Amino acid sequence: MGRNSVRRVPQGRARSSAPMHPLTAIKQPSVTIARSKRQHHKQEHFKRQRRQLAFAAHRAKRSEWLDIASDTQRIVLGDGKYVEERLSAPSVSSLGLSPSPFQCSEVSVPVISSHPQGHSLATAVHVDYDIAPQIVISKQGTTFYPHCSPELANWRGIRANKSSLVSSNISFAPKSTLTAARRLITANPRFTKQSPNSLPSSSIGVLSFASAKRPGGGFLHGGDEQEETLARSTSLVASLRSEQAKEFYQTHRKFLNVDGAGLHDHSMVYSPGVVAFRRDDDDDIDVDQAPSRSGSTIAPYLVNVLSSVPVNAAAIRQNYLITSSDAYVFEDGIRNTMRDRMARALRIFEIRGDRALVLGAFGCGSRQNNIEMVAELWAELLVCGSREGTEASKEEIKPAKFKGVFEEIVFAVPGKLFEPFKRAFDMKLFEMEVMKAAS
Questions:
Q1: Where is the Microbial-type PARG catalytic domain (predicted)?
Q2: How many whole angstroms separate alpha carbon 405 and alpha carbon 166?
């Protein structure tokens, strides 16, 4: 007799009539969660990698800036000699000036140039420059303008002679200060004067957003603020370390002890004939004739640098408890102080006879001044004037104090600040035009 093929189900373990869920259906939620976690961890890993790479690149760049700054200091505080390397052999000139206004000599050096078709013999030119005499003249001409200078404090009451007014050409450049200055002098060689019996001089003024503590700020530590870039690529630090400039830093230290909130004082230093001799990061001029790497030496050119410390709005907001009800008091105070400081800077440029200016987003960036405010103040001082109340409490439009004083004005605003700066400047001009039409 064969075995019964029907298996008996023990009592209490009878099969349910409901169909069982497949195993995959039961495990699906846990699989989805695990996959989501893996994807999240992978994204976080890539983010960390990108941050690490960005940090490493920035650290390498700071190290490069530090080396360049150290070499610049060696030149400007030493014998004033350096070598420019060019890839071809044009006649030596300083940005269109021929012959060169600086002492120089050329040496041709054969080099091997690589091409897809093979190697070829080319000629590089090493140009030796001696800028020491110009550095001496710049230091001797360095001028300190004190906080209480009556000539500057009375800028509101001073009007330019109508017979000397010119039609100002205003332009905007998403470039660094030095790159904008080099472009300006390349297009307008008339702003550099030279004669056979004297050293050259410049009529291009550059506003430096200066440190209140030390010459060149942190340029010897790899810093890249606006003044630090100037100090890294020019002879500015030689002027700022002169006897004439020492009072500038002493005054700021005294004022800091009285009011350490970040307003700073109005004292400034004017450094004439500062020699620029390095290529800035965004400089694309004559890259077909010379190495285009950042910090490479170039033919020297001259600018006049005015060092002024902007209001540190970030420090003010940090040191005071500012509520929504009194915020306007602080903002108005910052605006009025900045207007006065910027107007004094323009007055100094006017007194010194500068015909072209390179300005910018004065005090924005790390000092956190409002970019729209700075752009509007430049527009009010240089172009459209401002709305001011009279004794009868009625507003009227006061003319721009420095309109028509300078032939060329370039606003050099690199990076993400360029668009909001230009937009605010243009909107201020449009607003004043509407007001004039309405009145």
A1: 127-278
A2: 6
Band of the pLDDT at 25, cuts 50, 70, 90?
A: very low
d(CA 366, CA 392): 41
Does the structure show a pLDDT above 80 at 175? Answer: yes
- Helix (H) / strand (E) element for 51: namely helix 23-76
**For residue 355, what pLDDT is reported?**
97
CA-closest candidate to residue 132, choices 103, 107, 92: 103
- 23: three-class secondary structure by DSSP: helix
Which residue carries 């509520």 as its tokens? 323
Confidence grade of residue 197 (pLDDT, cut at 50, 70, 90) = confident
Residue 299's pLDDT is 92
What is the SS3 assignment for 116?
coil
Q: Which residues pair with 356 in a beta bridge?
A: 204, 408
In single-letter form, the type of residue at position 249 comes to Y
Helix boundaries (H) for 313-416: 313-319, 327-351, 371-379
Give per-residue pLDDT as tens, 76-113.
Answer: 999 999 999 877 644 444 444 344 556 566 665 554 44
The total number of structural domains that make up the chain:
1
Residues in the chain, total: 439
The mean per-residue pLDDT over the stretch 285-299 comes to 78
Q: Which of 132, 97, 135, 100 is nearest to 274 (CA)?
A: 135
Question: Token pair of 34, please?
Answer: 């695990």
- Structural domain includes residue 295: yes
How many CB atoms sit inside 10 A of residue 143's CB?
16
296: nearest Cα among 312, 279, 313, 316: 279
Q: In what order do the strands lie in the sheet with 81-86?
A: 81-86, 118-130, 103-115
Each residue of 198-225: pLDDT tens digit? 889 999 999 999 999 999 999 999 888 9
CATH number reported for the structural domain that contains residue 193 in this entry: 3.40.220.10
- Does residue 365 form part of some domain? yes
What stretch of H or E contains 231? Answer: helix 226-233
Is there a domain that residue 23 lies in? no
Note down the domain range covering 299: 132-438
225-275 residue pLDDT tens: 999 999 999 999 999 999 999 999 999 988 877 766 788 999 999 999 999
In-domain check, residue 107:
no
